[in-house]
Design a protein that fits this description.
Layout lengths: L2 H9 L7 H12 L9 H8 L3 H10 L5 H9 L34 H8 L5 H19 L4 H12 L3 E4 L5 H11 L6 E4 L4 H12 L4 E6 L7 H10 L3 E6 L12 E4 L12 H17 L3 H15 L5
Parallel strand pairs: 1-2, 1-3, 3-4, 4-5
Helix pairs in contact: 1-2, 1-6, 2-3, 3-4, 6-7, 7-12, 8-12, 9-12, 10-11
């Protein structure tokens, strides 16, 4: 990634952008040299979006419209009118920060990885960004105590509800599928709606002491009352989240952070998935019959011919 692209990428850091808006940002980064001189129609054509989407993108960044954003692109230090901090530092004049969606990282790993990788293409930069997120996770795990404490809570919970909605549903379902091999009663809850709270309260009534939730952007609105119901029911909430301070967390929750990649149009969650597996490994260390359950599963799998060797 050249200097102009890296500088422009930094310009967009810290913003909550929808997938469409992220495509526009990535398009501008790829065309950093001429981005300050492109019309909104040209940007829309290059990004494969509508012209009004380009205008909304500028407004989301805190500008009156695309012409104001284009002027700012010619001077990356320029801030929107009314901004109280540098562009990209979590909000430009407060515009667009609430409803938009996945976060372009505060220290975008793709930028750093791209600079170190020279001429890496955007797909390579996305992979390198995920590698950096995994390195950050490895550094956090140098202190194993938070994961070990969370593992003890989850292992002792009978049943164990595992929540993940929308984008996080795959993480929750994957964790629950493997956890069921070693935990006697795992209940994956990956669909929202009016029954979600019923199922959480039902798990609490059946003896659950803790709930695991994968909370990844964009945070579904229905997750907030669901977690509130869990706390009211006396469940300890353990969150695997994209940040140490997710908006859905409350004091008393245990938060295990793992960064989500934003280098592509849709989030990549390699680090949260890895953290989930690490947490599951720590649970195996404290579940009294984990080894026996795994051995029995393998024996039955062989008897039934479940897998092609």
């Amino acid at each position: 990634m050249d200097e102009a692209s890296a500088r422009l990428l930094k310009f967009f850091e810290g913003r909550r952008l929808t997938p469409v808006q992220r495509r526009i940002a990535h398009c501008l980064v790829r065309r950093a040299a001429d981005a300050p001189y492109l019309s909104s129609v040209e940007v829309a054509r290059a990004a494969g979006v509508s012209q009004p989407s380009v205008t909304r993108f500028a407004v989301a960044l805190g500008y009156d419209g695309y012409p104001a954003l284009r002027r700012a692109l010619r001077d990356p230090d320029r801030r929107p009118v009314g901004a109280v901090g540098p562009v990209g530092a979590g909000g430009a004049g407060g515009a667009g920060g609430g409803a938009a969606g996945p976060v372009v990282e505060r220290e975008d790993a793709a930028a750093g990885a791209g600079r170190s990788a020279g001429d890496a293409n955007p797909h390579q930069q996305a992979v390198l960004a995920e590698l950096e997120h995994l390195r950050q996770l490895a550094a956090l795990l140098a202190d194993p105590r938070p994961v070990e404490e969370a593992a003890r809570l989850l292992a002792a919970s009978r049943p164990l509800p595992v929540v993940g909605l929308r984008a996080a549903a795959a993480q929750a379902a994957g964790f629950a599928w493997f956890a069921a091999k070693v935990h006697p009663d795992v209940r994956p809850l990956t669909v929202g709606g009016s029954e979600l709270i019923d199922r959480i309260e039902g798990a609490a009534g059946a003896g659950a002491g803790a709930l695991l939730c994968f909370a990844l952007p964009r945070y579904p609105r229905e997750l907030v009352p669901a977690l509130a119901a869990a706390r009211t029911a006396g469940l300890r909430v353990v969150l695997v989240a994209d940040t140490a301070f997710p908006t859905v967390a409350e004091p008393g929750d245990m938060v295990l952070p793992a960064a989500v990649g934003t280098a592509l149009s849709f989030d990549t969650a390699c680090a949260p998935m890895m953290l989930g597996r690490v947490l599951l490994e720590a649970m195996c260390d404290v579940l009294p019959d984990a080894e026996g359950r795994l051995e029995r599963f393998e024996t039955r799998a062989a008897e039934r011919g479940l897998f092609v060797e």
